Amino acid sequence: MHATTLLWTLFWAAFLLVSAVDYFVVTRRRTAIGVPSALRWTALWVAIALSFSIAIYFLHPDGRTVFMEYISGYLTEYSLSVDNLFVFILIFSLMGVSEVAQPKLIKLGIYLSIALRILFIVFGIALVERFHWLLYLFGSLLVWTAWKMIATEEDDQVRPEKNLFYRAAAKLLPVHHDPQENQRLFARSDGKLFITPFFLVFVVIGSTDVLFAVDSIPAIMGISQDPFVVLTSNIFAVLGLNSLFFALRGVMGMFRFLKHGVSIILFFIGGKMIVPGLGHALDLLGAHTIGLRLEGTEHWFKVHSSASLLVIGLVLLVSIVMSVWYEKDTHPGSPAQP
Fold it and tell me: Comparing C-alpha atoms, which of 212, 242, 252 is closest to residue 44?
């Protein structure tokens, strides 16, 4: 069996295993998941994703380079997924979703996120291969997203009642408000089919997933356009988010500056994608020396693939350490779990 085929086989086997265990052990359990238990499950899923990177290093024909790209992509996409979960937690709070209904919504959101990412990856890579200049557009989108993240308060970003899809669904379809239907998308009453408030929350979650996928795919493509790296790092980043949700819900105060770290990473990746295009423009305008140097940045990062990983890892580490330090300094002696 070819090495790449073996890696694809390992990836899909791990994907099915993690999905099955996460669904039957985490989602279907009747008791609430505490922070320590959720952290243990999360650590297991992360360990599986990192173990896959070791398999890449030893089995892939271009092991070292692909390993670096995979780890960089995984860390970037995982940090974006964590920010996605923070938004989900805020949505649940604003829309009054019960704790009993939250796991099912998270799971539906994860499945939708995986489907959207695969769809966007397939079309995104095909478009970039045909129209390379789209990378500059994606880079600009990431820089704008980074600025928006850092300049906008979290609760200003989420307004369920202003969500276009939410308003359309609530206006076009009759809503059934029976509290017994709080975990069903549809309900039937007097022979008529209704949507439920649960359905409306899922609409908000789904439209949020679309926005995050739009930001996510340019981010990973700024690191690699290899379909294997893009797909595997993306999917592994969203697997096991169900258990991570319960961990973050209990300790989200400890990650105050994670959003700032994510925005810096997006700005770095976006800038790395834009600079070669800027160099090409300067070259055409006569500034050949500066233009050629800027154009060479893309090649430099490909040769020194560890540089991107170092920047991403360092930014995440600093943002988490600062968050923990701030939490301890602001609330000395307070427990990590409320």
Answer: 242
